[in-house]
Amino acid sequence: MNKQITKEELSKIYGKISPFELKDKLISLAKENNKSILDAGRGNPNWTASTPRQAFFTFGQFAVKETQRTWQKEDLAGMIQKNGIYQRLTEFISENYSLPGIELLNEIINYGINTLGFNEDDWVFELTDGIIGDNYPFPDRILIHIEKIVHDYLMKELCTNKEFNTPFDVFSVEGGTAAMCYIFDSLVANSLLNPGDKIALMTPIFTPYLEIPHLPHYNFDVVNIHANEVDNEGNPTWQYPKEELEKLKDKNIKVVFVVNPNNPASIALSKECKDNLKTIVEKHNPNLMIITDDVYCTFVDNFSSLIADIPYNTLAVYSLSKYFGVTGWRLGAIMLNQDNIFNKLIKELPKETKERLHERYKHLSLKPENLSFMDRMVADSRQVALNHTAGLSTPQQVQMAFFCAFALMDKEDKYKKLTKDICKNRKKLLFDGLEIELKNQPHDAAYYTEINLLDLAKCKYGENFSRYIEKNFKPLDMIYNLANNYSIILLNGDGFASSQWSLRVSLANLRDNSYFIIGKSLKNMIDDLSYDWKNKLELSM
Description:
Aspartate Aminotransferase, domain 2, Aspartate_4-decarboxylase, seven-stranded mixed sheet, 14 strands, aminotransferase, alpha/beta, PyrdxlP-dep_Trfase_major, three-stranded antiparallel sheet, Aminotransferase, 541 residues, Histone, subunit A, 49% helix, NHTrfase_class1_PyrdxlP-BS, Aspartate Aminotransferase, domain 1
């Protein structure tokens, strides 16, 4: 029989390990008392986009038939042949119109041809050969037709279809986490960042952004830009006041990382905040590199990324994982304008650094000094020497294209509305359980929400009760209590560089009514503490 985890044991690791690692310990604790737990610590959504998957798997059946058409011997088959493949797919669709997802498949093919102007056989061949996955990705950055689909999707979701003077390149990657690794590694490999350099993090922020800079081979000097703005009633807005953003006037800060909407509060940057940042870059720190991670953007009304407002300085990361329910597929993208600060800074590197980089990339080009930062990232993702094997697997790219095309053709944003409604409804149920009015908050993704326990205590029983909790308890006491007595798992906000008294609630991964239960449990925990507090007050009188 396993020994139950004690609060004392947890206190030894609290604040020293990632909140995601702590969560696993809390789950073990909760399971000791109740096999039925509510784990709102993980951000994995409990919905999946079914129709694009149906189209993908039905299309896969056509692709296998195409290999067998070329050559077949028992379990062996040949490779896809391009000539006439569009006509054969048209016949397959016509003869199998009752198959799941085939209507969407037909629409995707026609969208590429009629809307984007693709050659019929080239387009169908790329998808068919891609889904079979028998060739290395070529081009390695992203397949030609698929790049156009993914590019247009990102322009719609990140840039509200704004037009730019120069185009954007897209690099398909194994989810947002791979993008983070590739970006950090390439910045260092190209001496755009060097160990000990000063970087900025716009906090709160996804935990790995806090952890990666302190790894021994990076060891960056980190400046936190705090989202500590409050409204007229003293409630947090999760925006960055001007005095915080002005830290970025320091030209020693080479790069700033931002998750937008942020994590854990999942509130997007306001226009005022973005305008202030843009002014600081233009007037005070024109060489500032900006990395924006916009994974939750589709859950915010009228979202516009920093890459739309400051395209020259900004590199954007996007993952399909949350919106389409595809964390296991590992589908993500890096987007960068062809005219960018990264290329400029590479050209301005010292002579000795350029010579070192010439040796690093000389096998890729006769003039490696002309390689763009994007092309260097692709090569660096495979340690340069294995550049010929770089790129996201082609079946993953085809599934990504199907998701993006599905969203592009959804002119009324029906799917988007469904996912938004799920999150907003769950947040409402959480606050109903808390018995607190849910106020409309601009720029809210409602994918996560953050509950500050001191604010909750103050809201329920006043300032003196809030001070009592702060004086007599620690945040771990609350997290432990929720896991041990209520079998509820929430993440500590300070693990995201937010308040130590805050808890992150994922609104994406549990059944709707679970959020009412979580809210009710939080309220009951606070009520119990207030009961003890009132008794102590009466005894002291």
